[in-house]
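Lab notebook, bench 4. The sequencing result for the construct came back, and we need a structural model before the next group meeting so we can plan mutations. Quick request posted to the team channel:

Model the 3D structure of this chain.
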Amino acid sequence: MNAITVFIHAFRLQLRDRLNLAITLLTGTLFVFLYWMMTGGGGSTSVRVLVLDDDRPAVAAGGTPVAAGEAVRAGLTEVRYPNGQPLAVVERVTDLKAAEVRLRNREAGALLVLPAGLSAALAGGAGPPAEVTLVGDLTNPSYTLAAMVAQAAVAAIGDSYSGVPPRLAVAERALGDSGGRTEFEVYVPGLFLVAVLLMLYTAALSLAREVEAGTLRRLKLTRMSAFDYLAGVTATQVLVGMASLLITMFAALAFGFHSVGPWWTAMLVGFAAAIPVVGIGLIVACFARTAMRAYLLATIPFMLLMFFSGSVFPMPKVELFRAAGRVVGVFDFLPTTHAVAAFNRVMSLGGGPGDIAYELTMLAALGLIYFGAGVLLFRRTHLRAEG
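Done. Here's the predicted structure in token form:
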């Protein structure tokens, strides 16, 4: 009977804390819904493959026309999931340099370059085999799927015009140093992101403890403004975050990680990402009067920022609009989306500050938005209430 009595008491207490119970029960459902939206309403994610097709149709012995470039592009769309949805969204391009920029910006998974003599080589003409080039950032999670689809389409065409010796070869060209990274080095930039993301918890818990302890009542007697208070908290949290990131970088360096680009640029990315992350922590604290509740609430944005940043899963570029020649997608409102892209561009592709200007600009804008929202909400939910 004692156990039953304790069970009834604990169950009643759990029912009284409706917010925590709702978070526990519905967080999994929330992420299922978000992933359902991300994959097109229960379908599957399609990766964008750029095709630079310089091929010219030829005529084989016997007068049979050969249009290998067109056949490869058609074959890319024929590789499908079991539900019939294509694995690839094929886009034909004409400028190699512009296409490589889009790969660096992660607006596509891979670039397939079809040479001018592709059809002639497959038609049995003299000369060396035609070489199809697959270009991409090998640290991009979307590249694996894009490369698989492209290679399947090329192999299908090559098999249909098989010869001895083979008339078709596939070469892979990695952007920057992405092809020379070890598995450890591929995943380390994501760990740098974790070091920054943990500030979401520390910022939310720091403010929630002040609310729970009643410290804000004493602070308000000093006629402190919400901006002054939260700016001080933010500065402290950013300092702690930078120290955490620096220690993490030294640990990675000690275990053999090397950055192609300058380390100080990566620290600049971490600093720019820290401000919006702390801002989100401030917003979380606005809805929590205890440290425990702040911890539970912070879990939701932490998972959103981590799993939908593109560091864990390949994320589709769900386009909303274009600005300054860049595609702005749904997940671009998450600071971690830009932090992941910038970390990889610096550490794997050798980029400098000029190469990540867009990401730094977006992080600065998001920092202003989230910090500003945190100031307004905190003033309404805590400072005004404490008076």
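The radius of gyration is 26 Å.
Will bring this to the meeting.
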